[in-house]
Design brief:
single chain; alpha+beta; CRO Repressor; 2 domains; 5 helices; 4 strands; flat
Length: 142
């Protein structure tokens, strides 16, 4: 027996809302059994220096990594041999979005704080531009 929800109870998709979503490539396995895999790293346009830097950010040595994968956004996700060890979650995308929102808010504050009309208009115009950029890039950063 199959059950389908009624139209009004079906989940909303980006296509229904008319939104574009970022295209996704398949994840590349770049670490297996504690060893870097050079070909998948090259396929993802990355190198061992990048891998070492990302593992350092997570405070993990490559020998403790059972499986490491890079997604289409270049985020490294690792599964460790010892489940008691923890690896830091990737934070680049949320941090970028938060920084952009802070810049937009700062521009609005500058517009409110200045007495000069030309400066006020310039800050407001750039605040609106920043908001437009945030609106465009948000689907890619979530």
């Amino acid at each position: 027996m199959n059950v389908l929800p009624k139209k009004e109870n079906q989940p909303v998709t980006p296509k229904i809302l008319g939104q574009k979503v970022a295209p996704e490539k398949e994840p590349q396995t770049v670490v297996m059994d504690g060893k870097a895999l050079l070909e998948p790293l090259a396929n993802a346009s990355l190198n061992t220096n990048w891998l070492e830097t990302e593992l350092d950010k997570m405070n993990v040595s490559i020998e403790n990594v059972f499986l490491g994968q890079v997604d289409s956004d270049g985020q490294l996700t690792v599964d460790l041999y010892d489940d008691k060890l923890t690896a830091a979650e990737p934070t680049e995308k949320p941090l970028l979005l938060a920084t952009m929102k802070k810049c937009q808010a700062d521009l609005e504050l500058f517009a409110l704080a200045t007495e000069n009309q030309k400066s006020k208009q310039l800050y407001q115009k750039n605040s609106e531009r920043m908001q437009q950029a945030i609106d465009k890039i948000t689907p890619y950063l979530q």
